[in-house]
């Protein structure tokens, strides 16, 4: 079982809820199972970038990747 150390799942859940979508609705739009969305939302699954992109597309969110250090 993976551990959501980055908070990606929590953030996606927040965005999904702001979009007014249930896990089932997001899953149908993203081509995922409701169980997969639930696992992502709760940080029990470390999804691939392609899955994150599908999830974001389904909830009307964008994917931004910030790389860099403190300096």
UniProtKB/TrEMBL annotation:
Residues in HTH cro/C1-type domain copies: 12-65
CDD domains the record matches: HTH_XRE
Spans through the membrane: none
Coiled coil spans: none
GO molecular function terms noted in the UniProt entry: DNA binding
SUPFAM superfamilies: lambda repressor-like DNA-binding domains
Classification via Gene3D superfamilies: lambda repressor-like DNA-binding domains (1.10.260.40)
Pfam family, one: HTH_31
Name used for this protein in its record: Helix-turn-helix domain-containing protein
Species whose genome carries this gene: Amycolatopsis mongoliensis
């Amino acid at each position: 079982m993976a551990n959501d150390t980055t908070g990606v799942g929590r953030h996606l859940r927040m965005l999904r809820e702001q979009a007014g979508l249930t896990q089932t609705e997001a899953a149908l739009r993203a081509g995922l199972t409701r169980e997969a969305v639930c696992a992502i939302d709760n940080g029990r699954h470390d999804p691939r970038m392609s899955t994150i992109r599908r999830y974001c597309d389904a909830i009307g969110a964008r994917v931004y990747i910030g790389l860099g250090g403190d300096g």
